[in-house]
């Protein structure tokens, strides 16, 4: 009986140990570099960086993180718990002066958040609760609290996605209550609005998307854009899993069929082929999305493929281009234009050293009878 008990005790301890090891292995300390728009990038192209722990199983941040400029000025901190933003978050201007701060509960902004001018004076206070928000303080540059006025217009600059700039939220308070349209505008264009009557929400409208019963001016829109950009793991075109192997959404450098070149000789063996970010699938997509069909050939339903021979040098740059086959001069010019805007390659490798290589890329033009 004692032997059986000892066996189960050892088995349970071993199983527990494996679970602990797996949990530790899933969390790694990392530094992530970001562009000026909070897209993941390579260190040499970065404006900011984040020191953090990352859960490779949940593919999310875990524990405390700190953000810095590349000149090592501390510009933000916060923490994640159970894959959600939790506790106090602070955001600073690039000079380190505090910009805003507040708490998250279960991933959502909660209670009082404060924003500050760059000289440290309070700009505004917003109270978040139950999926709504109220302005509790709104100070002009002279220090006057506008909320004490019988009627005032509230305005806030926001960024709602990685491509939107010059976006504002504008709303009116009358007798301390939201009134009329609380609008999201981009430049002079109306994006969406929520309608209020004496502080009571009425309806919402969005120009080009379905709100499905949700308010247009959601609480999360008021929180600094970097919070959600970093959670979406947006990345610049030149970054890959080579730099961040644990970020599985990043593309890999895939091989492109080709042959190595040393001097006047072609190498067929003991060689790693040249590589393109995203491999042959992305190469084809980059060509297809950038191609402009020659108008005269489109009207006359002409098509075909241009075969372009490329020599990739030891640095992954296109050294030369040579058209092997083409259905016409306009197709040739367009094919060469598209080849010129492709991202750099990585060179072929022979016995551990980069070498030149030769690849042939087809650039296809097929009208398919779009214009008759």
List keywords for this structure.
372 residues, TolA/TonB C-terminal domain, 3 domains, ten-stranded antiparallel sheet, seven-stranded antiparallel sheet, 24 strands, disordered C terminus
Structural write-up:
With 372 residues, the chain is α+β, with helices and mostly antiparallel strands. The protein has three domains: 28-131 and 222-243, Histone H3 K4-specific methyltransferase SET7/9 N-terminal domain (Single Sheet); 145-217, no CATH class; 253-365, TonB (TolA/TonB C-terminal domain, 2-Layer Sandwich). It contains five helices and 24 strands. Strands 1, 2, 3, 4, 5, 6, 7, 8, 9 and 10 form a ten-stranded antiparallel sheet that branches.
How would you summarize what this structure contains?
This protein has five helices and 24 strands. It has helices at residues 2-26, 226-232, 279-290, 295-299, 329-340, and strands at residues 27-34, 48-55, 60-69, 74-81, 84-85, 87-92, 98-105, 108-116, 122-129, 132-138, 151-158, 167-174, 177-186, 189-197, 200-206, 253-255, 259-262, 265-267, 271-272, 275-277, 304-312, 318-325, 348-350, 353-365.
């Amino acid at each position: 009986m004692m032997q059986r008990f000892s066996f189960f005790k050892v088995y349970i301890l071993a199983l527990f140990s494996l679970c602990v090891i797996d949990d530790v292995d899933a969390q790694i300390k990392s530094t992530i570099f970001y562009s000026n728009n909070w897209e993941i990038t390579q260190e040499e192209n970065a404006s900011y960086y984040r020191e953090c722990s990352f859960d490779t199983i949940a593919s999310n941040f875990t524990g405390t993180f700190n953000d810095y400029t590349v000149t090592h000025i501390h510009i933000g901190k916060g923490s994640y718990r159970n894959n959600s933003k939790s506790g106090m978050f602070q955001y600073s201007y690039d000079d380190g002066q505090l910009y805003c701060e507040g708490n998250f509960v279960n991933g959502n902004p909660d209670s009082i958040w404060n924003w500050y001018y760059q000289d440290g004076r309070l700009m505004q206070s917003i109270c978040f609760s139950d999926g709504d928000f109220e302005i509790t303080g709104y100070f002009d540059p002279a220090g006057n609290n506008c909320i004490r006025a019988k009627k005032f217009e509230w305005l806030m600059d926001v960024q709602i996605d990685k491509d939107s700039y010059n976006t504002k939220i504008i709303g009116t308070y009358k007798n301390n209550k939201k009134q009329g349209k609380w609008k999201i505008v981009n430049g002079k264009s109306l994006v969406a609005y929520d309608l209020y009557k004496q502080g009571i929400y009425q309806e919402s409208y969005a120009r080009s998307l379905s709100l499905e019963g949700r308010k247009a001016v959601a609480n999360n829109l008021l929180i600094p854009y970097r919070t959600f950009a970093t959670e979406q793991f947006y990345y610049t075109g030149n970054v890959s899993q080579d730099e961040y192997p644990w970020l599985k959404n990043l593309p890999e450098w895939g091989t492109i069929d080709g042959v190595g070149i040393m001097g006047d000789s072609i190498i067929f063996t003991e060689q790693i082929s040249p590589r393109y970010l995203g491999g042959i699938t992305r190469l084809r997509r980059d060509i297809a999305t950038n191609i402009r069909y020659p108008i005269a050939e489109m009207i006359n339903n002409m098509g075909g493929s241009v075969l372009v021979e490329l020599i990739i040098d030891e640095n992954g740059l296109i050294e030369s281009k040579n058209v092997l086959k083409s259905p016409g001069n306009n197709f040739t010019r367009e094919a060469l234009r598209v080849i010129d805007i492709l991202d750099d390659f990585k060179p072929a490798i022979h016995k551990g050293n980069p070498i030149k290589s030769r690849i042939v890329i087809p650039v296809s033009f097929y009208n398919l009878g779009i214009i008759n």
